[in-house]
Amino acid sequence: MTQSARENADNCLETRIVIVGTGFAGLGMAIRLKEMGIEDFVIIERATDVGGTWRDNRYPGAACDVPSHLYSFSFEPNTEWSRVYPTQPELEAYLQNVADKWNLRPHIRFSHTLTAAHYQQDSGQWIINTSGGNFRSQFVICGNGGLAEPKLPDIPGVERFAGHHFHSATWDHNYSLAGKRVAVIGTGASAIQFVPKIADAPEQLSVYQRTPNWILPRKDRAYHRFEKWLFKRLPITRKLLRGKIYCQNEMRVLGMVLHPALMKLFRITASWNIRRQVADPTLRTLLTPTFPIGCKRILISNDWYPALQKPNVEVVGTGIKEITPNSIINKDGSEREVDCIIFGTGFYATENPIAAMIHGRDGRVLADVWADGEEAYLGSSVHGFPNFFFIVGPNVTLGHSSMVYMIETQIAAISRVLAAASEVSATAVEVREDVQQAYNQDLQTRLGGSVWATGCDSWYKHRSGKITQLWPGFTFSFRRRNRDFKKSDYLFSKSSVEAGT
Ligand code: NAP
């Protein structure tokens, strides 16, 4: 046990703050707490090492679509990134180094999966149940990630499939695809990375596409030794590069949110990209989306279209009717026997399973409160759930730039709320309902005019149609909005125990 937790009579380890998760969000928050002089916190982590999404998603070819010099903590630059776009092993190693450098491991309880969290109205504390033990804390900060729970498709018969199967986020590296009949279901950001890497191995690879995506060229390359030397010796060069990438990405907001007509420029490039890489007109039609570019996440790849044209690879676009114990039957009646199915079918993004575990004031369950779609104030606080914060909660995801920037913004904002609560000796702090409502009305109005509302299905949207994932604007606007912290947006109170009532 670290000094940051004490066992109490209820068999709960007592600590001031429990952080959930050890990805960018959880580690970044822990570092901020240390900087504030707070050591009394515990990080619970369901896995056995740090890294979040970059520890879990180890499929062949896993990498980030945001350049490495922007997709990293501003306070922990890395001059050694090997490429423009960081690969999964590099990102995992980066996060491990950060955890070690800041001596965070003594705070982490590995193999502790969150099972429930209950707010105690009398004390203003939370009881947090995990697979490894219980905790009592004043604050809970949830950095569990918006894309953490792999989703299997709701295709009839999927549970009866008797062959080998796994999800892209739980890749089975012990299973050899060589000489097998393999099906990949899904053609999103994950599939377009792993399909080209595995395409040569199977005897037959059938890629089941429900909706084609717009794909732009991936301008990736290795950094030269001289560049790395320059980044190290002249830090201004690395900072300038980071600034350049940041500004270029922010420009995309002009088309995505402010003037969707500008997205035509991306469409021209994406259409050219298909034309130059896919010669067969039938395949080209099959791979060309019909929705406006940007409505779903724009993907980047140089090897996806070539992989789909290998002699052992086929794209099946007729729609799946049913999965049997050894085959996939399509809506056109055709059937393909398969040995293995790889699900590249995404995550529970809009219905974060963790919400069903969170019991707030008056026993309300977050999943019920969010039944018509998640919402929060600044993506972190929800009325009715005092002393509870999300990092990468509702409407914080980006369609255009680095989530690490948004995470740092939220960490700073949560720190301000924690400091304000300390300042007035409050035991509970909660966002005001009217503030949360006004914020979300404004968000939804802005989202209504964005490219994401132009008529496509995506994981950005709740099943009600409400866009619950994306921030509709520049990332610096989000930061400014968070910096304009007003104490009056929150209700500060003392618990009945503290107040002696
Ligand atoms: P995704 O983008 O949600 O893609 C899921 C795919 O599965 C889609 O093609 C979807 O088709 C298909 N699908 C889902 N249910 C289906 C069903 N019942 N029948 C047939 N097809 C079905 O998931 P992902 O590829 O794992 O990526 C998720 C997100 O993670 C990305 O958008 C991105 O934010 C992040 N990510 C980033 C990177 C990166 O930075 N390079 C890499 C991987 C993931 P529809 O399109 O028709 O729904």
Automatic annotation (TrEMBL):
* Short name of one Pfam family: Pyr_redox_3
Q: Which domain of life is it from?
A: Bacteria
The record's SUPFAM superfamilies line, in alphabetical order, gives: FAD/NAD(P)-binding domain (SSF51905)
Protein name per Swiss-Prot or TrEMBL: NAD(P)/FAD-dependent oxidoreductase
Origin species: Zhongshania borealis
Q: Lineage of this protein's species? A: Bacteria, Pseudomonadati, Pseudomonadota, Gammaproteobacteria, Cellvibrionales
